[in-house]
Amino acid sequence: MKPLDQGSVIPLYHQLKQRLDARIRAGEWRPGDKIDSENSLMDIFHVSRNTAKKAIEELVQEGILHRIQGKGTFVSRPKFEQSLTGFYSFSRVLREKGLHPTDRVLEVKEVEPSATVRGGLQLPLGENVIEMKRLRCADGEPIILESSFMPKSVIQDMSVLYEVGTSSLYDLLDERYDVTVVRAKEAFEPVLIREGESILLETEVGKPALLLERTAYDTNDQPVEFCISIVRGDRCRFYTELV
Questions:
Q1: How confident is the model at residue 57 (pLDDT cuts 50, 70, 90)?
Q2: What are the two backbone dihedrals, phi and then psi, of residue 9, each rounded to the nearest 5 degrees?
């Protein structure tokens, strides 16, 4: 293997980082594969432990690698990317990417809405909502923990929502209740995964995530869903295009 250029103005750790990244992009290490240990990299490239450690750490911070305590460093799976330039459905996006979306409905119940939910749905005081908690997966991997709140006037039969495991919520609203979602407003903020969330999302407590709040509107421009989602930061990335 070609040695690093000791006389280059490019720091050794950055050269090593580029070499590791190139091997991943070339498919020598595939998602889930364990990469060479720091000791192996030190021997192969004749660098210090600090150099090997820094190269790996930068790739971990970029989400290209991830560490598993006591086991080593592994190549991360590519993140799911979604543009924010238009209305989208998570299920439809995954299907377009050749993945199989599934939803595990955890709970459906009637609740008194919080002030945030009430405001989002523009409901009067005293009116309850239907809450559906679900775990959203791609090819069986949990990606999003989601709570959807809908007006009782929209959901006449709560049991229908358990069919969301095999059908998109928006498709279900359209087919069963003639409610067509045409646009949505979203807000994001960074959060850390909490204990209960980590179990369901199969990730570690304290890992970065996105808190997403979505208000979905029908053809009459009436809010029909207020959704609060915890999105795994290591598996999803949202972007926008500026023109």
A1: very high
A2: -75, -15
Distance set, CA 201 to CA 12, 59, 210 (Å): 37, 23, 13
Give the model confidence (pLDDT) of 127-153 as tens digits: 999 999 999 988 888 999 999 999 999
The pair phi, psi for residue 231, each rounded to 5°, is -105, 125
1 pLDDT band, cuts 50/70/90, is low
- Mean pLDDT within 73-95: 76
Dig out the tokens for 36 from the structure.
Answer: 């060479």
Across residues 184-196, what is the average pLDDT? 94
Relative to beta strand 129-138, strand 223-232 is: unpaired
Name which of 158, 161, 157, 154 is nearest 179 in CA terms.
154
